[in-house]
């Protein structure tokens, strides 16, 4: 084997190792967690709690962001989502970063609430979805 071939093999091996590392860091190839559905009562409570947090944001944005994070983490926990930093939804990671370390504190908190809202809609749904589900259950009964 000549030197050129050896260098080519080493470069290819290095590229493969770097790509594998990047895929692992990005979470590609990891199975998605199987999430449990929320009970109707939990869903209604989370929707109500979220409405209160959004109302509170105008007068107490920092408190609202802290409560939003706690509520989102509670929803994720109840649905069985792994709560390790690496496994958290990207919106949760972004919201945490924006809510606590943004240079423009007000805008960062506003963006954080929007990210937390996106997670809540995905994990809990909206009040309209809850009403449609309730009507569907009533019709099925």
Structure described in brief:
With 141 residues, this protein is mostly helical. The chain is built from 6 helices and no strands.
Structural notes for this entry:
The chain has about 140 residues and is mainly alpha-helical. The chain has two domains: about 1-30; about 40-140, no CATH class. It has six helices and no strands. The protein has helices spanning about 5-25, 40-55, 60-80, 90-100, 105-125, 125-140. α3 (about 60-80) runs antiparallel to α4, α3 (about 60-80) packs parallel to α5 and α4 packs antiparallel against α5 (about 105-125). The longest helix is centred in the N-terminal third of the chain and has 24 residues, at about 5-25.
Main features:
mainly alpha, about 0% strand
Mean pLDDT: 83
The low-pLDDT segments are none
Task: Report the structural category.
Answer: mainly alpha
What kind of sheet is the major sheet?
Answer: none
Q: SSE order in H/E notation?
A: HHHHHH
What's the domain count? 2
Would you spell out the secondary-structure blueprint of this structure?
Blueprint: H1 3-26, H2 40-57, H3 61-79, H4 90-101, H5 105-123, H6 127-140
Helix pairs in contact: 2-3, 3-4, 3-5, 4-5
